[in-house]
Amino acid sequence: MRFTVKFIIFNVFFFFSEINFIDVFDPSYFQIKYTGFRDRPHEERQARFHTACRDGRSEIAFVATGTNLSLQFFPANLHGEQRQTPTREYVDFDRETGKVYLKAPMILNGVCVIWKGWIDMLRLDGMGCLEFDEERAQHEDALAQAAFEDARRRTRDFEDRDRSHREDLEDPVASKIWD
């Protein structure tokens, strides 16, 4: 358990110490832009952005740092499955006219975060931020602990089998049985 907790704490420290992410990992929002299909005309980019949001994905960048993210607007499913279409909680076209409000959980530099923000449907820019996801971090920590314990159990089983095998090879009585 200590190993896993230290690992999570180390990653949180590493995350906070990254220059590019200190600026965007703040409760206040920062300017973002849609970065998909930069080579296409603006009207086509608008249509593709709208379609991508309905499909549950998009590419954005924080303007101040140039940090690019490929987002998926689905709940952080604990079983690895993803929904076919995102719910209104993750992609909301109705909250404000001309804007889409987005939410994307992810693991960034080993830290569970939620990207939240909005993008203007005409200009393809808006505001967004990253927030620490405490609930998912606890779940991921529990998964890491379980994996660590499973690896420890398998190592112990292997060592027991290896020790038993060596004892069988060294036992003279067992060797006479085969003669």
From TrEMBL:
Residues 150-168 have a biased composition (Basic and acidic residues). Gene3D superfamilies: Core binding factor, beta subunit. Keywords: Nucleus. GO terms for cellular component: core-binding factor complex. One of its GO terms (biological process) is regulation of transcription by RNA polymerase II. It comes from the Eukaryota. Pfam families: CBF_beta. Residues 150-179 are annotated as: Disordered. It is found in: Nucleus. One of its GO terms (molecular function) is transcription coactivator activity. Forms the heterodimeric complex core-binding factor (CBF) with RUNX family proteins (RUNX1, RUNX2, and RUNX3). RUNX members modulate the transcription of their target genes through recognizing the core consensus binding sequence 5'-TGTGGT-3', or very rarely, 5'-TGCGGT-3', within their regulatory regions via their runt domain, while CBFB is a non-DNA-binding regulatory subunit that allosterically enhances the sequence-specific DNA-binding capacity of RUNX. Heterodimer with RUNX1, RUNX2 and RUNX3. Interacts with COPRS. Found in a complex with PRMT5 and RUNX1. Belongs to the CBF-beta family. This is Core-binding factor subunit beta.
